[in-house]
Amino acid sequence: MKAQAETIAAIATPPGSGGVAMVCVSGPAAIEIVNRIFVRRGGRGIEEPRRVYVGRLHDRPGAGAIDEVVAFAR
Question: Residue 35: which of 46, 24, 27 has the closest Cα?
Answer without folding.
Answer: 46
